[in-house]
């Protein structure tokens, strides 16, 4: 089975293209929707089994694209025929280049293109380190695109509505344009083939078969990105794209070599988990691709036996999968999406196949208290099929916090909880992780005395609270002389101080201060560890009231990855969020991208998610790491 992934911006026509390719030779196999963000379309073409993995558009669904690309022989990037929308394709071009996978770029809806092809390709080239090479040029009649000319075969094809294009004579007015474009294509290919370069220099006629051979080699070596044209909804250019995939895309052996070269485990990869879903009455299902050798029910993969395994190909007869086949594994709890599997172990796919940091955060609580335990189980199961879903507990409140890719991803998770598990939940913003500290030194003497029958309680201590530099944490010192406080009670005073600092006057942990035990008294009968611990706790609480307590808010160091064209628009956004801009620079590994570095309060992280999506038209993303605490105004956290 040959496998390729179709991806591109939302509304670019990916699903339409997948359906058109699958229907080229009659009825296609059943389209299988996977986890609401991907679809698997098996079909046959020229007596070969094929499968297209169609990834839903939008940056919040890119987490599903990495594992699919890892298991694919090639990729098809569908882009709109609009130069001004080229930036929307930037995240997909970047992912394809990071993956190192052979790819075709298909400019869709050429019949209604508002711009000429040269301008569209030029705009896309901004975001691509590889050269984009036109393999076709459009034929126009009355200002409308009515066909295309293949620059390798030099044949003209006229589009037919809903049917394969018809071979026609190359129009005379297209001769010069075709020769110019063909020359540019040959020069680009010649950079990677010495013999072709010699023929061009010596002005020899270049054979069509030779050009096809060079184009195939260049594609499989991932040297260039060929650009094809068409309109999927009218079945225009679809046959040419499919034939190019068949003749030029590598087979599963090359895919295995590429995957093994990027795997720390060497060349023993036998399968890749590329999709996952929760199916009613079946539980977790994982779509795997057999990479090396055969796989069947009960076979050892990943160190455990497979459960039920069903192939997707038209020739699948229940006997298992052979190299290259896709299948659905059920009752195989050890299998997960995003892993390469050996016979006796597994390895995570490379970093490029992992999701971007999940920076949109929400607290979720069940509407019905009885669903509390069920919610934990449901989120654990969802995490097994969604690599971008990160579940954690809020450190101060213990509430469940979901980290996802964005608002649409959150909406999808909540819909699955409601429809798939029958759990209604409420979402809310994550409470700010505030701290408190002091601004001046204070000395306090506190006596704890209690007599209520039997042994009493007595402890008398004198302490000093002293502010420390930001980030220094808590420190305890003792300056006791003459045994005023016996050494065995001093740790109890420290423990009491730590108890008091767990919750300050405003209900937040207290940090960045030093507690110094300077003097005290004890009683030979009534003093105890408990008494001195209580005294330490009460003394610190009393001192906090006089030490000028202030609130501290966490400040995050944020790295924003954004196309260069949007970098300027980030400046007012960050300034409006009271952030400190540290600078930005070109990303050396991604053409047309900048890395924008800033310090931002954690409280505005969710706002950054929505603002960044608006400013960058959904193309940007960011990572955030804790940097330090700084003093905050109480008015900023009136609800804290």
> What is the H level of CATH, i.e. the homologous superfamily of the largest domain?
P-loop containing nucleotide triphosphate hydrolases
Q: Percent range for helical residues?
A: 25-40%
How many separate domains make up the residues? 5
Going across the biggest sheet, name each strand in turn: 2-3-4-1-5-6-12-7
Report the total helices: 15
Find the structural class using helix and strand composition.
alpha+beta
What's the average pLDDT? 91
Describe the model:
The chain has about 650 residues and is of the alpha+beta class. It folds into five domains: about 1-250, P-loop containing nucleotide triphosphate hydrolases (Rossmann fold), CATH 3.40.50; about 265-355, Elongation Factor Tu (Ef-tu), domain 3, CATH 2.40.30.10; about 360-425, 2-Layer Sandwich (Alpha-Beta Plaits), CATH 3.30.70; about 440-550, Ribosomal Protein S5, domain 2, CATH 3.30.230; about 555-635, Alpha-Beta Plaits. The protein has 15 helices and 33 strands. The strands form seven sheets. Strands 2-3-4-1-5-6-12-7 form an eight-stranded mixed beta sheet, sandwiched between helices. A six-stranded antiparallel beta sheet has the order 17-18-14-13-19-20. Helix 12 (about 490-500) links the parallel strand 28 (about 475-480) and strand 29. The chain is elongated and about 110 Å long. The chain starts with a strand and ends in an 8-residue tail after the last strand.
